[in-house]
Design goal:
Layout: E1 3-8, E2 15-17, E3 22-26, E4 33-34, E5 45-50, E6 53-58, E7 65-67, E8 70-71, E9 78-79, E10 86-88, E11 91-96, H1 119-126, H2 131-147, H3 152-166, E12 172-178, E13 185-192, H4 205-214, E14 218-220, H5 233-237, E15 242-250, E16 253-262
Parallel strand pairs: 3-4
Antiparallel strand pairs: 1-2, 1-11, 3-5, 5-6, 6-9, 7-8, 7-10, 10-11, 12-13, 12-16, 14-15, 15-16
Helix pairs in contact: 2-3
């Protein structure tokens, strides 16, 4: 079982074990691993296990995430081994319980060894896994879901789960379906990144109606910079910071929308 071990800072020698494929680390209690430290962002980083590999990804935090003393690019996954040393805020950590790097002998596993700090190692550092890999993983997962014998509700719910895994800045996602005859909303399938969230879908009805009416996608990267006339009461009340709403159209028929947002 992978473990995050704090090696320096207020929580030195504290160990956090995790068995999920995706976990979040940050100052907020909504994270799987909560570290109450002022220099750490509310939702600071994401740790993802894919097969026998572990990837770490900075979630556009205020003070950044460092691996072996170098800041990693926010939003891009970096493959981390048990010999790597990470830091967020005033906390330093390493991951244990990972497969060892077979290209190095035992004596080479010391972070101070020259091979670890060589130019070749730095070149490897720059070869961070991009979102292209995550897009491929998302495509593969959705394809596998469609091959299974499940009802449409279960398929859509799992697809939303895949979307939340692949888009770190998204907090909630919904599929909103229309009745074929009345063209009114007949079903809402909702998924939240937060385990303590209730099952009720929260979204901007104004945005959803606009997408259904115009049959065109709407994207707001940062509602803070949107003109006031574009912001509905629900966007303000729910403190929504970004929105993507996409129409689902088949054979010229409007089936509904996929709606995601961050808070």
């Amino acid at each position: 079982m992978p473990k995050l071990i704090v090696t320096k800072g207020p929580l030195k020698n504290k160990t956090f074990s995790f068995d999920k494929d995706v976990i979040f680390v940050g100052r907020s209690q909504e994270n799987n691993i909560q570290i109450k430290e002022a220099a750490i962002s509310r939702k600071h980083l994401k740790i993802r296990r894919f097969g026998n590999k572990i990837y770490i990804e900075d979630l556009v935090s205020k003070n950044g995430t460092y691996i072996n003393g170098e800041m990693i690019v926010p939003g891009i996954a970096f493959e981390m081994s048990s010999r790597d040393l990470g830091s967020i805020g005033n906390i330093e950590f390493r991951l244990a319980g990972l497969p060892e790097d077979t290209t190095l002998g035992k004596k080479d596993s010391d972070p101070s060894h020259p091979r670890i700090n060589s130019n070749k190692q730095k070149a490897t550092f720059k070869e961070q896994r991009s979102f292209a890999r995550q897009d491929l993983e998302l495509f593969w997962k959705v394809t596998e879901l469609l091959r299974k014998s499940m009802n449409i509700n279960e398929v859509l719910e799992r697809v939303l789960g895949c979307i939340l895994e692949s888009l770190p800045r998204i907090d909630e996602a919904s599929v909103i379906l229309l009745d074929e005859k009345s063209k009114k909303i007949s079903k809402k399938i909702f998924k939240s990144k937060f385990e303590n969230s209730n099952t009720k879908a929260h979204y901007s009805g104004t945005i959803v109606k606009r997408v259904i009416s115009n049959r065109k996608s709407i994207r707001m990267s940062n509602t803070k910079y949107e003109p006031p006339e574009n912001l509905s009461k629900s966007i303000i009340d729910l403190k929504i910071s970004s929105i993507i709403c996409v129409p689902m159209i088949s054979n010229a028929k409007m089936l509904g929308v996929i709606y995601v947002d961050s808070r």
